[in-house]
Amino acid sequence: MADKYTRIGHLKDLASFRAYVAGLKLDLPADDRILSAANGSPLATTMTLRKPDGSTVTVGNRWCIHPMEGWDGTTDGLPTEHVTRRWQRFGVSGAKLIWGGEAFAVQPNGRANPNQLYLSDRSEAPMRALLQSLLDAHKQQCGNLDGLVVGLQLTHSGRFCRPNDKKKLEPRVVYHHPLLDPKFGIKPDDNSVILTDDDIKRLIDNYIVAAKLAWKLGFHFVDVKHCHGYLGHEFLSAFDRPGPYGGDLRGRTRFMREIVEGIHAACPGLMIGVRLSVFDRPPYHPDPTRGEGDKLGPGVPDDYAGIKAYPGFGCRRDNPLEIDLTEPIQLLTMMRDELKIEMVNITAGSPYYNPHIQRPAMFPPSDGYQPPEDPLVGCERQIQVVRQLKQAVPDLPLVGTAYTYFQEYLPHIAQAAVRQGWVDSVGIGRLVLSYADLPLDCLKFGELRNAKLLCRTFSDCTTAPRNGIISGCYPLDDHYKKAAEAENLKDAKAALKSRLRVLNMTSKN
């Protein structure tokens, strides 16, 4: 259970943190102090991206903001004041690489929720204003736009589509998955949910149309999303799908390759990145025998023993609990040499079925489980994987993930990882919801001037949308703390605790 792990906030100084990390036998470098740009911070150094035409783009520092959707657009796919405020906060962060801003669905039925931004004939003016709000905020905060690189993440949610009702899945999948299908209510004989080759070709066309809009609006790059169990990620494990979009690695990457080739042809000045779940695990569930009171049990993997060849990317098919980077390295090499992809944002797993792999946290979201390992173990796992990938494909810029949980010690570790060449850029996501200008504080002042705003991974930003409520940092951001939705979230969490008490009592009897 989580209470057997020491919370980061209870470690009073860097020496205590280092000792705790050593006790876990983890390899996490940490600088002695936070360095400002004036004092030579590795995070203040520039990063060069090479475009397909051979020209270069300079990213002004090594901080990156991950894309985050808030379930808070309009039902016709346009930004609201909540969306605009979030993008403005990305701008004031001081980070010079804004990776995608928001997950932007390339067609309406590919949305993860009915309030997700999506491509329509009305998108141009609102998306232009949204991008401008970020640029204006950054310029006001930083004085200029030098070195700022902003992208738009293009997506189809696949298995996790909810385009019409926040509580109703309307999945479109690449193949039937032996564990994910039953977990998310797909019948094994229901082939109506499987995308046909013609469906895929039309979808690829929509990615290209969306990229053309992004290019026209002035985004520097688009992210062809292949992570977190969404559709692009699922293609990478379509070993048993017949036809041109499954089978060997060439087949399983055809979806990506045809999108990228189409974008290069239609938008020759637009850079392309990919956010990639570079390894996966089976889905997890709370151990029903170990729940206590109103607490979920720790996560345990679903039973995969009867599956001879597990369909997962970046893990062993005969033992999906073990990472296998053979194909991910082949894919990164293909991205660099064949597809002319400028940078890759490395992540892992999925927030829907193994969140402790994807974003380590002390406190689970409402549909999750107690952490089955100290969250620091999950952070180090991702950092070490990126380190291995960087060694294998050294000249492809990589953005790292899983830094938020380090909290007070995030800048110390980020500086050391960049200095030692383990990663090119350090990405942060949910942390920005509570402490947007952390990167600027580090670079300008060499300190965390608002440490009280550090994300403590309470997971309310996930629990809220899981219960149909807009996402935000309800514990620390006054904008959400004082919103009417805060009461809805309290009610949803109270109802969950009541259900858990009954379930745990029943399981004990």
Quote the average pLDDT.
Answer: 97
Count, helices = 17
Structurally, the number of domains stands at 1
- Ends apart, CA distance between termini: 20 Å
| Secondary-structure element pattern, one letter each | HEEEHEEHEHHEHHHEEEHEHHEHEHHHHH
**Hey, roughly how much beta strand do the residues contain?**
5-15%
Helix content: 25-40%
**SSE class:** alpha/beta
Poorly predicted regions: none
Structure, described:
This protein has 509 residues and is of the alpha/beta class. The chain has one domain: Aldolase class I (TIM Barrel, Alpha-Beta Barrel), CATH 3.20.20. The chain is 36% helix and 10% strand. It has 17 helices and 13 strands. The chain has helices spanning 14-23, 81-92, 124-142, 180-183, 197-217, 231-235, 249-252, 254-266, 326-337, 355-358, 375-392, 410-419, 430-434, 438-445, 460-466, 478-481, 484-508; strands spanning 47-50, 56-59, 63-65, 97-98, 103-105, 149-155, 221-224, 271-277, 284-286, 299-301, 343-347, 398-400, 425-428. The strands form three sheets. The protein has an eight-stranded parallel beta barrel. Strands 1-2 form a two-stranded antiparallel ribbon. β3, α2 and β4 form a beta-alpha-beta unit. α2 packs parallel to α3 and α5 (197-217) runs parallel beside α8. The longest helix has 25 residues, at 484-508. The radius of gyration is 21 Å and the shape is globular.
